[in-house]
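idk why but the lab printer keeps eating my pages so im just putting this in chat instead. protein + zinc ion:
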Amino acid sequence: MSVLEIIAYPDERLKRESDPVTVFDEKLSSYIADLEQTMRAGPGGVGIAAPQTGHFQRIVIVDVSGRKETPNHGPLVLINPEITAWEGMKTGREGCMSVPDFTGNVIRAERIHLKAQNQQGEWQEYDMQGFEARAVQHEVDHLNGILFLDRLVSRRHDLFKRKVYQDRDN
Amino acid sequence: MSHWYMLTVIGKDRRGIVAGLTHALFEAGCHLGEATMMRLGGNFTIMLMVETEARKKALEDMIEPVTESMDLSWHLDQIEGHLHQHHLPDVCITVSGADRPGIVAQVTGALAEAGLEITDLESDVAGSEDQPVYIMQIEGVATEGIEALRSALNVATVSTIDVTVTPIDTLIG
Ligand SMILES: [Zn+2]
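predcted complex ->
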């Protein structure tokens, strides 16, 4: 296993759309092991997408299981992921291993329904919410050549939105 | 050898201030760093990091005509400037309520005492002339934890102020 190099913005390759995975073999597993190690090597990284390493296949890894009080499905390898339903909206702070030293607010769906293949090529379905759903939306964007920079909203004007959400959560 | 300066500019708001000023700085070979630029009470305000190899006097001589032409007052300080030194805020505090003297001092005093290092503070007076409403949004690093901030605010604030303390969970992906 090895830690792969992360492509950093403004590298044009981050805007490239990735291709579906069609072959589920040893080579794929070995790449995924490297990808996971790369994610774990980054400080605080809870997700990574293959194109961030210059590998343009529809593969992401998400793992928010290390966080307190965060509903999650454990460490997930999601191949050819497709979000099929979105519900609710919430502003949250995001950063990206491909955009060092910058964080900003992004609006994401609060709950999503997702289908994806696992490393054996079997389709799985997930209902996700909160931080895990946000992580998946961030990573799936990478597969489509979209960065969180493309979705930034103002820090200043989310005050009341934020308050409404909080009241609802309580 | 280049130096960083902090350029502060204030004046009655009008169209073209940012474009005019940054064009002049660019033409003079300056490199721009972090900045905040904002309309405050009908004035336009700028705090801008400027890096240049020119001497302070040369920079001042360049700024003078462009600010003069737009009726802006300005100030220039040489600073110890560094980019890529952001602190990641982990908490957001919003304060709102009827505007009254001392609200900022009271809240920020309690927060400082409880370990908050402010990275960003913005405040506004909204509402109307008759019923002004004060709204403040603070982001910072809770060096002694978020609970410490909550308890400090419980003690310090009165019931007419609404205070919300929300963790900022930054997703890195
Ligand atoms: Zn990312």
